[in-house]
Design brief:
Layout (H helix, E strand, L loop, with lengths): L2 H10 L3 H23 L6 H5 L2 H34 L5 H8 L1 H4 L2 H12 L6 H8 L7 H26 L3 H8 L4 H12 L1 H16 L3 H6 L10 H11 L1 H30 L1
Helix pairs in contact: 4-9, 4-12, 9-12, 10-11, 12-15, 14-15
Length: 270
Amino acid sequence: MTRVPRRRAAQGRRPLVLVLPALCALAFLLVPLIGLLWRAPWRGLPDRLLNAEVGQALRLSLECASLATVLCLIFGVPLAWLLARGDVPGRGVLRALVTVPLVLPPVVGGVALLLVLGRRGLFGRYLYEWFGVSLPFTTAGVVVAEAFVAMPFLVISVEGALRAADPRFEEAAATLGASRWLTFRRVTLPSVLPGVVAGGVLCWARALGEFGATITFAGNFPGKTTTMPLAVYLALEADPEDAIVLSLVLLTVSVAVLVALRERWIRGAV
């Protein structure tokens, strides 16, 4: 009977040596965002959002991020299944390689894409010679760059959901004569759908905010490859208020992603 009050008392103690650094860290993370909101041109915000350049960058960003997410879903979900359920040698090494774009500087990723998919790249030369397709410095190049940096977010989320799913349902489907493809479509995929949705949202948000790989591999051509992060970078020199407006849009998307995934993260933490 005395353990619960003691435990609550122990949890209620807040040593000053921990509280002060915690408050400093909180201020360090929140004050820049508050400053962004404080300096925002709220009165002229609708007009600036309807500005041709801002609207163009916003439209291009949304389209490219959505296409990149579709690519990640098409290729990333099977990859996550292979890592979670596939009996392949060196699976741990494969998993480590998949997560490399998470820690790789995006600019380095853009350089790597140029060396592989450029007109003189390892595979890009054949794409150009055989099919006349050149990805660098095109809108398609933006999609490829965003998919490269965003796919690990989807793969990790879906793989985690697959590992947490109960395999007995798949085994039951197999005993009833269902093929592996039918079992995946009708049993496995519905059971991990929340993980796929969460990974897709994270993937889309990461693609929307990509800068380094995009500017390195796709360049910065207004109306063609200038996405919102690139437009923010350019607007800082020409019109800082436009940069603030675009930053607010990206901040709104980030907050929306956090709100959309809040329940999933809370359930995972409990």
